[in-house]
Structure formats: structure tokens, C-alpha cells
Amino acid sequence: MNVFNKTSLALCVNAAILASAAGVSTAVLAQESANKADVVGVEVIEVTARKRTENIKDVPISVSALTPKKLEVLGSSGMDVRALSGKVPSLLIESSFGRTFPRFYIRGLGNTDFDLLASQPVSLIYDDVVLENALTKGMPMFDIERVEVLRGPQGTLFGRNTPAGIVKVQSKKPTQDFDANISGSYGSFGSTDFRLAVGGGLTDTLSARVALLQQDRDDWIDNKAPGFEAEDQLGGYSESAGRLQLLWEPNDDFSALFNYHFRDAEADSRVFRANIIKPGTNELVDDFDRETVFQDAAVRNDQTVEMKGASLKLEYNMGDHTLTSVTGYESAEMFSVGDIDGGYGASFLPNYMGPGFIPFPSETGARMPDHKQITQEIRIASNDLGKLDYQFGYFLFDEDLTINNLSFDTLGGGAQNGIAIQKMETSAWAVFASLDYEVSEQLTINGGLRYSDDKRDWDGELVQSPFGAPSFSESNNVQDSQVSGDLSASYKLNDETNVYARLARGYRAPSIQGRSLLFSANSTTADSETVDSVETGFKSVFLENTARVDGSVYYYIVKDQQLTAVGGSGNVASLLNADKSVGYGFELDSEYFVTADLVLTASVSYNHTELQDDTVAVPGCGGGCTVTSPLNGDGLAMIDGNSLPQSPEWISNLAARWTKEIGDGELYVYTDWSYRSEVNFFLYESVEFTGDALLEGGVRVGYEWYTDGAEYEVALFGRNITDEEQLTGAIDFNNLTGYVNEPRFWGVEFKANFF
Q1: In this predicted structure, what is the pLDDT of residue 34?
Q2: Other beta carbons less than 10 A from residue 468's beta carbon
Q3: Given CB 3.0 to 4.6 Å as the disulfide criterion, which of 282, 311, 625, 642 pairs with 621?
Q4: What are the backbone dihedrals phi and psi of residue 262, each rounded to the nearest 5 degrees, phi first?
Q5: What is the structure's pLDDT at 80?
Q6: Within 10 Å of residue 478's Cβ, how many Cβ atoms?
Q7: Rg of the chain over CA atoms, in angstroms?
């Protein structure tokens, strides 16, 4: 406080916290001189979208960055990675598997498949290591420096399974400077959330950082099925996670960063609810109660996940070039079982009382007893050589996993009556190169290519059939090689605005699906899909650096799109390729400092998707819903012209933060609202399985104060404050089973940061 006067310090802190908590970027206070007034402005946002640290304004990619303050607000209710859904343009995240298996969609491209072998066209990169299996993508986000969302194909530097884009998570790294933060919250349903992070120098060359997370929630959903009544039987969870990082910097040219992390979670699997949709509509039934289910297998609903991994990142500055090596290891084990039909009993049984219609009991589960993933990347990048800069490298991916698909005899007390074992080995390698050429002070051109080779070997065995079918085994494999890449140009119109154009190709490696082995069906495969995209956009900071607007317009074609058909009364899953899909739309992302005390952020995206294949037909819901897609002669639904599943046309977000200096700190009020338009849950279209538009709002009111070497915060917060109730997904048995969004949540939180 002896450097700035009290007013200057308060304004500086006010501006920084305003922007970082309210929007996609952060803000700083630029002090022009000791005798001039301070000016609030939009901070330069640095991202690593191209594996270099760059100003986001100079990157010819549609990209958004979420800051630590924003992430803390979104995750304050204990929500998992799905809290990011709708918070930046064109991003949706959902799950039918609970907290452990998120499914990502960017610009409408994703994969609704719930199988543990399923691939996704959106890649998650966590601390420079790709997390391929959807189970590993549920790793909690805590002590995070930044989350970047890269939209569109990323086929050069990241390669396989990135045709829709990338979500890139970067944790806070160790430094020589000491800092520590601790936070604790308590909220609805007996929820608690505790976080601790400590970092600093151990020696002159060795730094360390430790971060821990503990989240718990009590069960809060009652079971009222006759004969199975129990209070507070479902809805709870307990999750622990941690990270240890060591950074060794023996000199200015070399660094070695070691990262060890783990996750240990136990929760209920997704809570399915039978007969909650009004026939002939997509509305919830009149007597729907979020805190009540009617299930005969709820007592056995369980989901456990154990993950651990480590990585080593080495960087060596050789003068004109930097050599980087990233080695990663990930492993996971899981078990999950749930009442899939969402009800109790079955209509064919004597004295069945309902409610609604249950065609047959379905209690199924999955176990992953063994999983390991090894990745290795080596790349060489030039260090600002002049007009021409480049990087090139090699990438290796190897994954080996075992899956047990399980079924249980619900009517017989839950005894296991079926098991199918799947084993799959995936090996892939790639070489890549990227060039940047500065044509002039205004124009820069970038281009890159990647050659990738992928192979999957699969073995499946039906050990025990729930229907008494004989055991059998089979093998299958897929292999392909692809060339992907991008070409872009960035032009500096003036000091405030850059415009860019980009052509890109990405691909998703071929897939194998063997989930239906449990029902005596054969495995299915899908060929590689490719996405060709054209995009143009602008990035601008204006109004004397108090406003920012980024925009993009795009069009893409997906060839041989991989789809998973799941439907009919048997609910059998199978892979297939559609001839093509098209998508087009736009994105706008903005931030505006109305005053030094009020900052607004707003984003909106429009994503139109359309399947184009007049030969593909899929099973409908087996008669329990009103299918509106045309049917072929076999009674299958034609999907030509349909939008992609879980692909809303509109996604938008609005946030505002106001502060007022009081005493030695400041009072703030923050609110954010996210909207997505209606979605189809499945490949076919139906009245009942269309999710209505969803609007959810959050609020946070708090007080922050500062002392020498510490800052503190106490806050009251709420999520989904209007208690919106909407279907977010369904199971297309013929009993109108669905699941809904998270309930309203209120909580209080205390934080302390020391430095």
C-alpha cells in the first residue's frame, strides 16, 4: 500500500476481479502516470491454441478462454465439467452416464454413444495430454489457470478425433513465488466443496505445487416404488482429486515439469425416470417431482471411478529452436450399474400397478477393470526467426482397455445374469508440421499438414447371456491413415481489429462397437469420418480498450459421419456411417466495461446441422413415442434432413458484475444466464424425445477484502435459481423414460488467498 494510494489500489483490484469473474477474458488497470486517472481496459489474453503462447487476437482460429474466476463461479455448486456447457459459443456438454462420462459437442458435432469404447469428435487436452476415453474426460477441474475452447477442425497440431474442436485445460503451474489458497462451501442437499492449493520454491531451481479437491453431497431423492420405499436413496456423491507438480529449472534453457494426478469418485449413476413425459408432447407429466423416483433397483444404483496418471514435460531452448517432449500415462477403473428402465416391475407381470408402462425390467451396468493410455509427443519449434517460423513433430498414442458389459436379474433380487467381455487395443502415430510466414506487417499466412495412422484390434466374448443364448467369441479390427491440416491467413486492419480466414480438415479415427454382444448380436464398425471446414472471422478491441468483440462465420461438410443407432424395444446399439452432414452458423463473443464498476459479457452462436443420406434408416422407439420422421417399408425411421442429436441451433450466455467499494474491500453482485434452444435426443425425430429450450441462471453476492499478503472473500451463491425443470436426455424404450437437468442450488462460500 505504500506504492499506490488507497483509491488506486481499490480501482486496480476492482477492475481485475470484475472482468475475470464476469466473462471470458480478464481485465487490468493501466496506470498511465502517477498524476493521471486510472483507465479500465480489456487485458491481452494469451492462449496456447497453436502450442505457442500467443495473443488470442493474433490466432486465426475461433477460440474462447475461460479464466480462473469464471471457472470458480461455474463450479461453485459442485457441478462437474458439464458446468461449462453453454458458457462459450457453440459448446454443449451432456451425459447419460452421470458425473463420470461427459459428452462434448462443438458446432453441433458430437457423439451421443454411451459405450465405454465410444470415440468423440471433440478432444479434451488436459495439461498437454490428450484424454481419449470418455471416462477420463470426467477429470475434475480445480486449481485451473485457463480453459480454452477451440472451435472447428484442429487437424494439424492435435490430429486424431478433433474434427469438431478441442477443449484445452491448463492447471496452474509451480513458480518460485509462494502462494496458497483455500476455499470451502456448503449448500443445498448437504453439499460441501473444499479446495486447497499451495505452491512455491523448494530450492533455487525446484518449485512445487499441490492442489486437492473434496466434494460431497447427501442423497436427496426418495424412492416410492411399492415394496422398495426408501427416503434419500439417490442423488449423492463423494469425490476426491489431487495433483502434485514439480518444476525443475536448473538454468534458463532447460525445464522439466512432472505432473501426478488422481481421482477417486463414488456416486449414483444417472437417475432415469420412467413415464415422466406426457404422451404426444415433450412436457413433463403434471405430477413430476424431481425429488421422487419409482424404481425397483435403486438400492443397487452405484458408480465408482478411480483414475491416476502422470506426465513429464521437458523443454530445451537450443537458441534458434526449442525442443519439447511430453510423455503421458493415464489409467482408469470404473464400475457402474443403474435401473435403466427407470421404473419398477413390468406390465407382463400379474398384479402390476404402474405407474405407467414398463415393458420389461432392465438393470444393466459396465465395469472397466483395466485401462491404460500412453502418449508421447516430440516437437521442435523455431524461436522467432523472423518472417518465417515453424514447428514439426511426432506423436504416438497407445491405449489398452478391457470392458465388462453386465446385466442383472432385477426380479430375482439383482443377481448378475449376463456378462460380455470386450478388449481393445488402439495404436496410432502421426507426423506433423506447421509454418507461419509474415508476408507483411499486416498479413500473416499459416499452414500445416499431419499424416496419421490408426489401428484398433478388438476381441469380444459373450460369457453369459441373460436370455440363455450360447456363449461365443469374435474378433474385429479397423485401420486407416489420413492426411489432415489447415491453411489460414490473418490480416491486421488496424491497431484495434484483426480479420482472418481459415480452411481446415480434421478426422475421427475408425470405431468398433461391441456393446450388443450381451444380446447375442455381432460387433459393428464405422469408417473414419472427415470434416472439411471454411471459416472467416474478426477479433476487435475498441472504445479506448474498454470493449471487445470476436466473431466468426463457418460452413463445414462431414463425410462418412460416424453415427450410433440406439433404439427400438431391444435398445440395441450399432455403428454406421452416414454419407454426409453439413453445418453452418456464426459466433459472437463480447465484453464491455460500462463503467469502472460494471462489466458485461455476452455471447451467442447459431449452429445449423443437417444429416444428408436418403438411405440410412434407424429403429424408432418401439411404439411408445410419436415418431415424426418418415418410415421406410421395414418400419425404420429415415434420418435424411434431420439435425444432429443434442445439437441446439442457438446457444447464448449473458453475465454482469457490479462492484462497490466499502471499507477496506468491495461488495460485488454477479449474475449469469445461459440459454440453449430445443434439441433432438436421437437420430430420428419424435414429439416426445425433443428437449425444450433451456434457460438457467446463476447469482453470486459477495464481499472481498484485502490485507498485506492476503485476500479474503465470503459469498452467497445460487445456480439454476429459477428452478427450471427440463428434459436433457432420454432412453428410447417404449416407456417414455428420461432424465432432467440439475435442481436449484443455494450455497455459501469462504475463500482465502495468501501470497
Answers
A1: 33
A2: 9
A3: 625
A4: -150, 160
A5: 87
A6: 18
A7: 26
pLDDT surpassing 60 at residue 3: no
User: Are 220 and 189 contacting, i.e. CB atoms less than 8 angstroms apart?
Assistant: yes
Whether 665 has a pLDDT exceeding 50, the answer reads yes
Label residue 475 exposed, middle or buried (CB < 10 Å: 0-12, 13-18, 19+).
Answer: exposed
Residue count of the chain, please give it.
755
Which DSSP letter does residue 718 get?
E
C-alpha cell at 306: 478411480
Reported as a single tens digit per residue, the pLDDT across 260-304 is 999 999 998 889 999 999 999 999 999 899 999 999 999 999 999
Please choose, from the candidates 116, 39, 64, 151, the residue with its C-alpha nearest in 3D space to the C-alpha of residue 506. Answer: 151
Q: For the beta carbon of residue 495, count every other beta carbon within 10 angstroms.
A: 8
Asked if 122 and 151 touch (Cβ cutoff 8 Å), the reply is no
| Range 515-536 burial, b when 16+ CB lie within 10 A, else e | bbbbbbeebbbbbbbbbbbebb
> Is 314 exposed, middle or buried (CB count within 10 Å of its CB: 0-12, 13-18, 19+)?
middle
In contact, 163 and 138? CB cutoff 8 Å: no
* Alpha carbons 623 and 616: distance in angstroms, whole number: 20
State how far the Cα of 530 lies from the Cα of 125, in Å rounded to an integer: 20
Q: Are strands 54-55 and 46-47 parallel, antiparallel or unpaired?
A: antiparallel
State how far the Cα of 387 lies from the Cα of 383, in Å rounded to an integer.
Answer: 11
CB count within 10 Å of CB 372 equals 13
Q: Establish how many alpha carbons lie within 13 A of residue 593's alpha carbon, considering only the half-sphere containing its beta carbon.
A: 29
Give the pLDDT band (50/70/90) at residue 748: very high
Out of 105-109, 395-399, 461-465, which region has the weakest mean confidence (pLDDT)?
Answer: 461-465
Residue 506: partners with Cβ closer than 8 Å, 6 or more residues away? 121, 152, 153, 154, 155, 162, 163, 164, 484, 530, 531, 533
Q: Which residues contact 3 (CB under 8 A, 6 or more apart)?
A: none
Report DSSP state, residue 282. Answer: S
Residues 6+ positions from 715 with CB-CB distance below 8 Å? 700, 701, 702, 703, 748, 749, 750, 751
Pairing of strands 103-106, 39-42: unpaired
Cis peptide before 355 (omega within 30 of 0): yes
Minimal CA–CA distance to 24: which of 676, 602, 586, 551? Answer: 602
Name residue 274's amino acid: A
Report which DSSP code applies to 300. G
Specify the pairing of strand 292-293 against strand 221-223. Answer: parallel
Q: Which of 113, 167, 109 is nearest to 139 (CA)?
A: 167
In angstroms, the CA 627 to CA 459 distance is 36
Q: Which of 369, 367, 371, 366 is nearest to 330 (CA)?
A: 371
Position 298 scores a pLDDT of: 94
Q: By three-state DSSP, how is residue 268 classified?
A: coil
- The CA dihedral of 382, 384, 387, 391, to the nearest 10 degrees, is 20
Short-list 334, 398, 396, 418, CA closest to 370: 334
pLDDT at 654 over 70: yes
Spatial separation of the C-alpha atoms in residues 14 and 473, rounded to whole Å: 65
For residue 46, the surrounding DSSP H or E stretch is strand 46-47
β-strands 524-526, 472-492: how paired? unpaired
**393-409 pLDDT per residue, tens:** 999 999 999 999 999 99
Using CA atoms, how far apart are residues 530 and 749, in angstroms rounded to an integer? 46
Q: Which range is least confidently modeled, 49-63, 212-226, 276-290?
A: 49-63
CA 614 and chain centroid, separation: 32
Return the pLDDT at 21. Answer: 38
The pLDDT of residue 35 is 34
Q: Quote the cell numbers at residue 62.
A: 475461433
In the beta sheet, which residues pair with residue 529? 508
- In 3D space, the residue among 492, 513, 619 whose CA is nearest the CA of residue 562 turns out to be 513
Give the confidence band of 2 by pLDDT, cuts at 50, 70, 90.
Answer: very low
Cβ contact 558:579 at 8 Å: no
Cβ-based neighbour number of residue 711 at 10 Å: 17
